[in-house]
SGNH/GDSL hydrolase family protein (Paenibacillus spongiae), 929 residues
Amino acid sequence: MSSHSMLKEVLVKPMPFNLSAVTAAPDAVNSRMLQHKAIIEAFGITSLSGLGTLTIRGNVIPQAGLTRPEPNVLGAETMFQSAFRADSMVQGLQRFVPAGGRAQLLKAIPFPTQGTAIPTIPVIPSPIVGPVSPVRNPFESLTETAASNIKPRTTAFSSEPLSDAASSAAMRSLTTVPVNSAYWAAQEVHLADNTTVILKNPQKYLIILAEKITVGKNVTFTWERPLIQKPAKRTKLSPPADRPMSTTLSGVTGVDGLPGVMGEPGWDGTDGPELEVWVLEMNGRPAFDLRGQDGTSGGDGQDGQAGGRGSKGRTGIKDGAGLWCASGAGAGGNGGRGGAAGRGGQGGEGGRGGKLSLYAPQAVINSYLQGFYVTVDGGEGGPGGIPGVPGPGGPGGAVGATVKAAFEECGPKNGRSAGQPGAQGTAGIAGPPGKDGGPQGEPVSMKVIDADEFRRKLLVPAIFSTAPTSAYIDDTVELDGKRFTKTDVVLVGGVQAQTLVYSDTKMQFKVPSLAGGSHSVQVRQSDNTLSNRGTIYVLPKLVSAKQSRVRPGGKVQLIGSGFTEKAMVKVDGLDMPDVHVLSPSQLEFTLVRPADVQPNPSGEKIRVKVMLPDGISTNDIVLVLETFHMLVIGDSIQWGQGLLEQEKFHSLVASAVQVREGGIGFYKTVLAHSGAIIGAGVTDIHPSLPGEVPTKFPTVLQQVDLFTDLPDHVDLVLVDGGMNDIDIRNVLNPHGPDLTPMAKQFFFDDMKTLLKKVGEKFKNARIIVTGYYQILSEHSNLLAVEAMLIALGVGVAGPGGGIVLGGIGALELNQIINRCKQVHDLSRKHLQEAVNAVNAMPVPVGGNRIFLADPNLGTSHAALTSDPYVYGIHPNLAPEDVHVAPSRNIECIAANQDGIDLEICRVASVGHPNPKGARAYADAIIPLL
């Protein structure tokens, strides 16, 4: 509902004044009078005495420019609404009632512009019929006068044409006067009975200059409130997409609905207008309606999004032979929770009340001290918007489909069923009401003037124009005017500027260091006499940032000029939070990384600019966003053998870094692969294979050379190596070689060589070495160990009584477990020694930036235990990594693997960390970041 549709009649008491309320600041009064004098002087008016009487009657709407006595000052007819007029008295109170209808535009001479003479016949603006939409910028320019209507003229109070100097002044003046000002100038202003003067958007100021004002009965000064309406409700969100079919026996819960967005804030009411009356004699008392406009209601909150449907359960799985059921059908996922209802928008703030200023001799003010009728209250704040509707919960997913094997059905078991519907979203709350608009400072004021001073032509400086009207700090600006002297100085926003006077009509100044935005310009003479006020707009400029590279979530300081309070910072068009203006030349803000930054692991480029509250912005500058680059080198443990990408521990570490670094741009390079050896002293070069296919090449040392991006921008290196140099088959063979010298060679000597090379190349990186674990322990299912050895191609034969590939004896089993423990203990010891040795080296190689991350899986979580953190193997020699094994099988064949190598490749996940083991590795690494 629009604000003006709620207008109600108002009863107003007469406003009394005390003598103490009459302000008498001669300097301020004279400064203001001189400003108006300079304005009417630009129209060729040097005295009010000969202008005659300006008669106003009926419903009239002032226009921008100057209205003066003419035979007919009424122009085109238009419409107005949402105003008030004074009506009958009720028990000593003045009643104001809503008013609207037809009115006539007052003819006005537009403010002259450079090179434009004042027209003989006042221009009649085009009529505006019907309601007027709100204009957010009250200083928006009006349509210029057609050239055909402009021609030289003589003054209305003199038979002599304007002099060349006066005409030139008129052409240059008033460039600093906003177009929402209307001036009435006359010897006498007569306001007839039942006259209503309506200030209609964009007019906000009415200044009346007259020797005498006569006011009839029921005369009202009022204003038309612009049309503002309650914001529309936001569009309802479509339900999220259904979850895909689950890959496990448990269904995946549907996506939770997004919460509804808070309703749009209500429109603020417009401030009341300002009236200024300069008069020597006044008869009668008009009523003044200057109350601020009410704010609108806040917008309704958005409805919460419906929850997503849960996933359908996984279809039952047959074993490889198709005879038995390997896995029953999975349960359906529960539906997602509905989104919370959006909060109602905040009500619009009430507009501030207007101002009434009376400048008159003491006798006139004494008469008005008895009281008169005026409303200068602020408008009421709008009520808060109502909340949205909570989103319904999503439906549950269906139970998995049944598959028939030869001897049994692979259907739902153990109570697996369809998922449950999701819960409804939480309810929203109503928005807070808007603040009431208060009165402006000194809403009603009376100031005593001297009648002779009012009439007298004052020999003080006057500013007609500034060129240019906007400038940067230290730019040179030219002033045109009158009565300048060689000792004059220019004040910009009260700050003295470097000034150079050329003549009595022209001077220049340099813009001092000030906040951006509009500032007053005055000429001050040696006796402190001040001119009227011109204006200059100080433009903001952005020069640089204090930091060469910036980090998301951190503070950024910008250097420039023309910064001002409530300035905004935009990065790639996105508003930044926590903007603090430290000075006109420096501000800081908290950097949020935009979502659409162009990827670049060495540093992402962003464009930054500063915008003042009125929408004027600086130039753009380019800054570089810090990124986080992680390099992963090593063997199958670092690669994540048998794991989906999101399950690998380097992916888990990446997620932790992004959370900790405030959404920093994260880049990851993985050169690790299955089967890699450290390769100290190895010079052979072989092409790379897919990461799941075991191969020694590229060695870990060669992987360091393969990194071709900028090494100084790598922040984290994850590295391991040594186990493939020993060969896991040597570890698992109870009759294999002595592990002690091999462990020292590979886990200490060769690892130290590797870490020195990594440290030297990646000078700014933190380096984390991951350790190994005990593959088999006394907790392993010893009956399944033989299948594991067969799958890995380990031949067992010797004095313990075992046979090759079958029938392992108890002695061999005990020896295998002891060798697994031995290599684990030796690897942990020697890896830590290698880390310590390189850390002790001077930077850039060492410098205590290398750490050992021990996964510490423990013997109870070895392969083939009841709670394994390591992949084992099924009795039928099928690998346990059911999601990755099929694609690895294809890659093994494509890599021309054959014989025992092909069989080992197919089950390459055996002995590697499963998802639980990968999480244990991530938990060991993350604290070291």
Remarks:
- The longest strand covers residues 74-90.
